[in-house]
Design goal:
Layout lengths: L4 E7 L2 H13 L5 E3 L1 H6 L4 H4 L2 E6 L3 H9 L27 E4 L2 H11 L9 E4 L5 E2 L1
Antiparallel strand pairs: 1-3, 2-3, 4-5, 5-6
Length: 134
């Protein structure tokens, strides 16, 4: 049985509190959010209630504080040389691309004759080699 619960952090927003709770649960620490449902139903009550409170058993308080305060570094994925980005020409690999969107021109006509709009997708043209694709 867990001991007495203590509040280790308070959050104004529910998503931020949920993220902290997820970090603790991933570390195997039992935790609870107080005022979670009240703030979720009406976020304006957050200040009046003192925010969403993150509670843990007293014996896990120090470890839990350290976990939620640690910063996780974002690691950039290594670029693959063989892959082209979404905004590169499939023929030459150039990134100087012109986008042509015909949707607006044909929207009124498609409504009148009941033609599906998915037929009018963006079309692309490479300014370097002139290659055109959808």
């Amino acid at each position: 049985m867990a001991g007495r619960l203590v509040t280790i952090a308070q959050y104004r927003d529910l998503p931020e509190a949920g993220l902290a709770k997820s970090k603790l649960e991933a570390a195997g620490i039992l935790c609870f959010l107080d005022n979670e449902y009240t703030v979720g139903a009406n976020w304006l009550y957050s200040n009046a209630l003192g925010g969403v409170k993150l509670n843990v058993p007293e014996e896990n308080a120090e470890e839990a504080k350290a976990i939620i305060e640690e910063n996780i570094e974002y690691i950039e994925p290594e670029e693959s040389e063989g892959l082209l980005s979404d905004s590169a020409c499939p023929a030459c690999g150039a990134t100087d691309i012109e986008t042509k969107n015909y949707t607006r021109k044909f929207a009124a006509i498609s409504l009148l004759i009941s033609l599906p709009m998915f037929l009018f997708r963006n079309r692309y043209c490479c300014k370097s080699c002139g290659h055109r694709w959808k």
